[in-house]
Specification:
- The chain is of the alpha+beta class.
- The protein is about 55% helix and about 15% strand.
- It has ten helices and four strands.
- A four-stranded antiparallel beta sheet has the order 1-2-3-4, with helices on both faces.
- Helix 2 runs antiparallel to helix 8 and helix 4 packs across helix 7.
- The chain is elongated, with a radius of gyration of 17 Å.
């Protein structure tokens, strides 16, 4: 059976913590996936990501990630998965088609970026992920130089930290900067 490991990494580091501010200032669902960003702060970016997560707007979730993060995902997920599937041949494409609910012929025609976005959209817009988005609360956001760090609490009590970087005037979730927070996040969860 085909496994999409990178999806779990993205969901663990970006999607769930970024999607859960639950206070009256979140402004409700405001359309969910407007590609025209009105954000002025990291908190605004989190509100937009929250709305996209709750609405299952995969396009807005993708655009809410930094360019570096998207490139890393295409490399780790799209190119690598396609190479692995191609090594095993048509039977593996048929297996992927079953897993992903799309004909193998269509999957084969996808670029690595299209493949990555498709796989992520299926996972990040699932009912399970939408529910996680609704049940995660952003506790605070603090600036650390040029990086904004969001602290959140999941429904199970686990603490999460996510980093945002400013890119072309808007705040974006960044996997590289988020990974740098893993030791601190571990400590937060061990001392609770």
């Amino acid at each position: 059976m085909l496994r999409f490991i990178a999806v779990g990494l993205v969901l663990a580091t970006l999607a769930a913590p970024g999607c859960g501010k639950s206070d009256s200032s979140s402004g409700g669902s405001s359309g969910g996936g407007s590609s025209a960003s009105s954000q002025k702060s990291p908190e605004d970016a989190l509100k937009e990501f929250k709305a996209a997560g709750e609405a299952g707007d995969a396009k807005a979730l993708w655009s809410g990630m930094s360019k570096k993060t998207r490139e890393e995902l295409v490399e780790k997920m799209g190119k690598r998965q396609i190479d692995e599937i191609n090594k095993k041949g048509d039977s593996e494409w048929e297996e992927a088609a079953k897993d992903l609910g799309k004909p193998a012929a269509e999957l084969k025609k996808m670029t690595p970026e299209e493949f990555t976005q498709f796989v992520m959209s299926r996972e990040m817009t699932s009912d399970r992920e939408k529910e996680k988005a609704k049940n995660t609360k952003i506790d605070k956001v603090e600036m650390r130089g040029e990086v904004a760090v969001a602290f959140s609490t999941r429904q199970d009590g686990r603490k999460k930290m996510v980093a945002l970087v400013k890119e072309d005037g808007t705040w974006k979730m960044d996997m590289t900067e988020t990974k740098k927070l893993s030791a601190e996040e571990y400590t937060l969860n061990e001392t609770k």
